[in-house]
């Protein structure tokens, strides 16, 4: 029995296997509302055989979007558009679906990857940004306004309101995006948080606002679903957030009743130095899991079935999240099952492609590097 294909209980959610699909921005929304692209994209991934499909970073308020083309969940229109997409996807697949709720902070109002780079000016649809301190992400980028207590309450309430909408749509998992240099990770990191009030300075102070937001969402998120947080394991920058701090934060998240963490890294400081290779963030996840005991997802170049299997079997992480590998190969879990000797049921429409019915499947798996 492959550990990768064993079930796992995350909060109130029963997952059929340990493979999750990491949230991936598609920059294809209009006014925060999903479009037909999202139907095609999410339906394709819903047929992958993974245990959980997580919808991209979704802005809890308009100024919290990374780009003008990001999805959002602040309005009835956004909710109706998401509901339409969910209806289509659920019509073809029983996969549990979750969503990542996000606020981009000082990295908001930037161009989407294929439309430009850096801050979008007001006259081209950009907007004012907020952050713990009035320090831009990099030179030439928009300078954020340092948040007041009222701003913090507004952001907390926006997370709660979006979570209520997500719960109402029957989403089974929500992941609060507290990583990658977006708003919450800029509170957590000493490189971006220069506050001198009770929300800056010590680790306890830097964690205070993210924990307030997490607790407020916990209070409205259904117990029969799962609620997790994506955290950085490191800023990959001298003087920045560390795996040890991530471990302390994960313990605090567990203590307020969060069901899991996904351990990622980077994005807070442009001076970061990342040596990206297979499993390059796994050590952070392993540390966080060990010191906090909270169910932990690792992400970052999880590429091969045996690599993923070893991670779970050796107890380094409970779940593996795939991003680029599963965009590259949207049937990755089916292929992994074959490699690991597991009989994973294909959708009946695709059953003839199951390698147990034709030699071509195994020849393809063996020959992809030819
Ligand atoms: C197209 C694309 C969009 C992404 N969007 C998000 C996102 O919305 N939220 C997030 O936390 N990470 C996002 N990421 C990062 C991935 O979720 C993942 O953490 C990262 O790509 C490393 O995993 P990988 O090596 O499997 O791609 C994105 C990555 C890609 C490739």
UniProtKB/TrEMBL annotation:
Gene3D superfamilies: Aldolase class I (3.20.20.70). This is NADH:flavin oxidoreductase/NADH oxidase. Residues 4-337 form the NADH:flavin oxidoreductase/NADH oxidase N-terminal domain. GO terms for molecular function: FMN binding; NADP binding; NADPH dehydrogenase activity. Its cofactor is FMN. Pfam families: Oxidored_FMN. Keywords: Flavoprotein, FMN, NADP, Oxidoreductase. InterPro entries: Aldolase_TIM (IPR013785), OxRdtase_FMN_N (IPR001155), YqjM-like (IPR044152). The keyword NADP applies.
């Amino acid at each position: 029995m492959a550990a990768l294909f064993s079930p796992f209980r995350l909060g109130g959610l029963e997952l059929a296997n340990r493979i999750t699909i990491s949230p991936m921005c598609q920059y294809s929304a209009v006014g925060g509302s999903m479009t037909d692209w999202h139907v095609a994209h999410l339906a394709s991934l819903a047929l992958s055989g993974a245990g959980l499909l997580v919808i991209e970073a979704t802005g809890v308020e308009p100024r919290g979007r990374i780009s003008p083309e990001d999805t959002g969940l602040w309005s009835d229109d956004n909710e109706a558009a998401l509901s339409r997409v969910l209806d289509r996807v659920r019509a073809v697949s029983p996969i549990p679906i979750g969503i990542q709720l996000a606020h981009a902070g000082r990295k908001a109002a930037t161009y989407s990857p294929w439309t430009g780079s850096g801050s979008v000016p007001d006259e081209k649809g950009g907007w004012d940004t907020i952050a713990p301190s009035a320090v831009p992400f990099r030179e030439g980028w928009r300078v954020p306004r340092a948040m007041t207590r009222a701003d913090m309450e507004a952001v907390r309430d926006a997370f709660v309101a979006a979570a209520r909408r997500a719960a109402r749509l029957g989403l089974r998992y929500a992941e609060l995006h507290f990583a990658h240099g977006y708003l919450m990770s800029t509170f957590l990191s000493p490189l971006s948080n220069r506050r001198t009030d009770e929300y800056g300075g010590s680790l306890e102070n830097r964690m205070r606002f993210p924990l307030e937001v997490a607790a407020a969402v916990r209070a409205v998120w259904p117990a029969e679903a799962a609620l997790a947080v994506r955290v950085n394991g490191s800023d990959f920058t001298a003087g920045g957030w560390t795996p040890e701090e991530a471990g302390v934060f994960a313990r605090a998240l567990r203590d307020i009743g969060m069901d899991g963490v996904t351990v990622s890294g980077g994005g807070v400081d442009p001076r970061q130095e990342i040596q990206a290779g297979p499993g390059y963030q796994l050590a952070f996840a392993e540390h966080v899991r060990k010191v906090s005991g909270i169910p932990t997802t690792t992400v970052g170049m999880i590429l091969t079935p045996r690599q993923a299997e070893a991670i779970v079997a050796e107890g380094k992480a409970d779940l593996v999240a795939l991003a680029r590998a599963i965009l590259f190969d949207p049937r990755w879990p089916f292929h992994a099952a074959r490699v690991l000797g597991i009989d994973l049921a294909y959708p009946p429409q695709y059953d003839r492609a199951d390698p147990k019915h034709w030699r071509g499947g195994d020849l393809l798996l063996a020959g992809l590097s030819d």
